[in-house]
Amino acid sequence: MWRQKIFLGFLLLLGLTRGIAQSISYTNYTAEDGLPSNTIYSVTADNQGFIWISTDYGVSRFDGFEFTTFTKSDGLADNEIFNFFVDSKDRVWFYSFNGKMSYYHNGRIYNESNVDFLNQLKLSSRVSDIREDKNGNLIFAGDEGNSMRLSSENKIVELLKDDNSQKKFLIKTKEGEVFNLIKYENFIQSLTGSEKRILDLHSIPQNQYASLLLAEYPSEDIYKHFFDLENIDDDKGAVYIQKQDSIYWTFGNETPLRKCKKVGRELQILKENKEIFGTSAYLDNENNLWVSTFGRGLFKINNHIESQFIIGENLKNDLLSSMLVYDNKVVLGTESGELSLVEKGKIKDVQWPYVEKRIDGSSRTKIRQINMSPLGDILILKNQGLYSFSNDLLKVNTAINGTFKDIDFIGNELVAAKANNVVRYYTKNLDHIKPIYNERSTAILAASNGVIWIGTNKGLFKSFKDEKIDTIDFPILDESNINGIIQLASDLIVIGTNGDGIFTIYDDKIERITTHDGILGNIIKHLFLDEDNQVWASTNHGVSKIKFTQNRIESIQNFTKDDGISSNNVIQTHVTSASIYALCANGLTVIARDKYNAKPQNDPKILLNKVSVNGVESDLKGLKNLSHKENEVSFDYSSISFNHAQNMSFKYRLMGSNKDWQISKKRSLQFLGLAAGNYQLEVVPFLSLATQSDSKVAGLTIPFNIKPPWYKSMLFRILSIVFLFFAVLLYMQSRIAKEKEKSKLDLKLVELQQRALLTQMNPHFINNCLSSIQQFILSGDKREANNQLSKFANLIRLIVSNSRNNSVSLKQEIEHLQLYLELEQLRFSNKFDFEVNIGPDLNSVSTNVPSMLFQPLVENAVLHAFDFSKRNNNMIKVHFSKEGNYVRCVVEDNGIGIQASKLRAKKSHSLGIATKNIEERITIMKKSKPKSAFTYEDLSEGMTKSEGTRAIIVVPILIESND
User: Which residues have CB under 8 Å from 551's CB, separation 6+?
Assistant: First the structure.
């Protein structure tokens, strides 16, 4: 309290009053921004609007966003280029110090090595000037000597050749006639008319830019209007560029940049920058003046901002830290604790006690915030205290200790966010009421519904009327350092953070706004709500104005150095209906809102700079039919608006891939891994990120096509369908033919099986078997008769059963053979023996074989192999074995052999029906089972020695029978 009493006795002293210089707003580009050199000879623009800069280390083209530099390696005749000329064909001609000419056109630089007519363009000295007449002919003038004409058909004609060694310049009248202006001589010569005319000229300024102004008048009035101003420093090489309403810009090698107004015969200086001395200038279509300099790079004079002034150069080299705008006054606070009052174009130093002179800007001395209380007092927040001043800044009402971060008001109460708590005070005398939050806080908002929002470096909290502290359940905020909180009329809460952008809370839902959405920076230093309920966010990259509709972003508009702000690192913004106040560490910028042109004079247009396919530069023709491997396509483009380069964004979509619009601030697009198909890229520039574009300008529309691989092409698909159709047709025909053939074979097999059945069921065999059984009955051997009759019945059963199936088990076949042989033994009174055996690797039960194939072989052996009248030791052996997926059956006898058997069969007229039947069946099987076989081997030696016969049959193992 003792300190409060002391401060009540101090009076505020108003110190030295200084005037505010209205400086020229500019943007300075140097080698650090991408220029090849800070030494610049000339600046101009081509017909598309690109700015061209000539230096001693090449030329650069500027689209407002980035510099593209060209050197000898890109085709320049020389790296040291001192001037330009842009003709009606949009060729940019380069004047080089080595005298050789080159030009840029459609993305390529042409020189003597790739253009024949440039080899004929040989002046006696380097080119000093170029003009184009009404017929499209280019006139080249040399420093000394001759002049040449390049026709619109690129034919070279020499015009003048004389011994006059004086420097020549060309001028062009409004009628399109080109004259030769000879320096230091008061006459001109027509180079395009039917005859040479010599006109008397008076008071020609001694610089090459004089010819620019001659072009403003008809040829017969040139000498009457050529700068009859009295206070022009002709001897110092001044340059003059005329603007509407009698406004002139003057500068030169020894003349600083000045904005002047013509009053009578004199120029009245409106603004001046004593640091800028130019070599050339160009006025673009947005009224920006581009000035080139020797050593300081390129300057863009922000001429589109008609009413603005910048202060800061008279603030004792201190850095600004805070401000308060009220009643057309501005109170400024600095890093070292100083106060200044700006009023009516004057700066007044405010002398107040306990200012700690720490020019290093240490945290204890900094004035963090200046605010106006509901009672009309001015509150100063320093890191070590809170001070209350009278409205007129003449006395200190009271002061309290503490590290204050932010304040807000609830009626006549003040709520302060401090380094270690949040405290309520009575506003009138700053009497302490009580703390409501006992942790570190960084921002405070007293909302209209009585809720107190508390920002910290660990998230967001709020206190209700009952002073209960609640944690806001938004984890996304837990790691955010909150710098400011404001409330819109719609009850939308807007939160600024130190690095995480902006958050909005509405109806218990949180949204985030970052640079991806269009604001300039994620470090939000200050939030301001204007009278139109728009949020102004001060960032380290400029100011973003955000317009909300309810809780949704309607638009974002950005302000940077290009808009007249002294620095992109903006500490605080205050907006009134009349002015925009942007506080930066190096000064305060004040811009009249009603004169600020928020849009370019011309709609922004978009220009395609380069197309690349798989990383190799291409042209639009090359995009018509790309192969399936050329599926990486990139596009570089520009949209030229030098006043709004940082605000420019682009809407784009790739039809054929995604019909939805995307938004980007990038000036290039790359599409990787595109599938085959037809595509169309659409890119539209616009000036603010919003739900809809604020510009209806035409954008880029680039169609391109990626062909599918040959095996995916339409022709291949058609041919494939045709081929598949004929293949299916042939397959079906083949299948039908095979089915027909199979049907024939099946019928044949049935027929052969029936024959085999008839063979095995022949009446002679049956009669003999029954006769033998009858003999047993007649002899009274009923048991044997019954036994043989049972065998006969089983044999008949097996024959009939097997005849119904295509396959039978090997066990059934062996049973069949044994029954047959036993009955034949009975028939032939046991005059032969037999044995049937099976290999160990053959399972007779699970192995199925074709039916009715083996019995005929055994029958042949019984009927044809033996001469029962001559020998008794007759033997038949049957052996089954497995060979892969086949069964090999060998029937061997020790009879008379094949030759004798054939002879006896011939005498008995036997035709070997059974053998032929087997051969036919095996032939049919071989078509599907090629290893099927049937052979006979004669074991006898001719007709003398009888050793017998061996029959071999190989048949496939069948999976199952057809029972």
Answer: 490, 492, 504, 506, 507, 509, 511
DSSP 56: B
Q: How far apart are CA 265 and CA 231, in angstroms?
A: 8
Task: Say which residue, 36 or 685, is predicted with more confidence.
Answer: 36
User: How many Å separate Cα 789 from the centre of its chain?
Assistant: 96
Pairwise CA distance, residues 914 & 755, whole Å: 8
pLDDT at 223: 35
- Report the range of poorest mean pLDDT among 131-145, 777-791, 884-898: 777-791
Concatenate the DSSP letters of all residues of 530-597 into one string: -TTS-EEEEETTEEEEEEEETTEEEEEEEE-GGGT-S-S-EEEEEE-SSEEEEEETTEEEEEEGGG--
- What is d(CA 609, CA 639) in angstroms, rounded to the nearest whole number? 10
Query: In angstroms, rounded to a whole number, what is the distance separating the alpha carbons of residues 863 and 905?
Result: 10
Note whether 820 and 928 are within 8 A (CB).
no
User: Would you list the DSSP string of 794-824?
Assistant: HHHHHHHHHHT-SEEEHHHHHHHHHHHHHHH
The answer to whether residues 788 and 946 touch, using CB atoms and an 8 Å cutoff, is no
Contact (CB, 8 A) for 500 and 524: no
Q: Alpha-carbon distance 100 to 75, whole Å?
A: 12
Q: DSSP secondary-structure letter at 629?
A: T
Place of tokens 């719609």: 490
Closest C-alpha to 953, from 833, 856, 815, 818: 856
Contact predicate 204/167, CB 8 Å = no
For 661-672, the pLDDT digits (tens) are: 888 888 899 999
The Cα–Cα gap between 146 and 180 comes to 11
Per-residue pLDDT, 688: 55
* Residue 333 falls in which region: left (phi positive, over 0), alpha (psi -120 to 50) or beta: beta
- Give the pair of three-digit tokens for residue 552: 């949704």
pLDDT digits (tens, 9 = 90+) for 567-625: 889 999 999 988 899 999 888 888 887 766 555 455 677 888 889 999 898 888 888 88
Nearest to 801 by CA among 646, 595, 962, 687: 962
Torsion 551-553-554-557 (CA) sign: positive
Better-scored residue on pLDDT, 177 or 607: 607
CA angle 479, 485, 490 (to 5 degrees): 120
Q: Is the pLDDT of residue 415 over 60?
A: yes
- Taking alpha carbons only, the member of 81, 123, 88 closest to residue 102 is 81
> Is 409 within 8 Å of 377 (Cβ atoms)?
no
Mean pLDDT for 328-343 is: 87
In whole angstroms, give the CA distance from residue 87 to residue 134.
Answer: 11
What per-residue confidence (pLDDT) applies to 450? 82
Q: Which of 57-61, 97-101, 344-348 has maximum average pLDDT?
A: 57-61
Vertex 390: Cα angle to 385 and 395 (nearest 5): 75
Q: Please provide the DSSP assignment of 150-210 as one string.
A: E-TT--EEEEE--S--S-EEEEE-TTS-EEEEETTSS-EEESSSSS----------SSTTH
Query: What predicted TM-score, i.e. pTM, was given to this entire model?
Result: 0.63
SS3 state of residue 702:
strand
Q: Alpha-carbon distance 645 to 67, whole Å?
A: 13
Q: Quickly count: other Cβ atoms within 10 Å of residue 234's Cβ.
A: 16
Give the closest residue to 645 by CA, choosing from 567, 580, 560: 560
Name the residue among 241, 179, 177 with its Cα closest to residue 207.
241
Over the chain, what is the mean pLDDT? Answer: 79
The residue-averaged pLDDT of 478-503 equals 92
Q: Cα(348)–Cα(315) distance, rounded to whole angstroms?
A: 10
Specify whether the CB–CB gap between 271 and 23 falls below 8 A.
yes
Q: What is the mean pLDDT of residues 913-928?
A: 79
**Token pair of 167, please?**
């420097």
Strands 40-45 and 339-343: unpaired
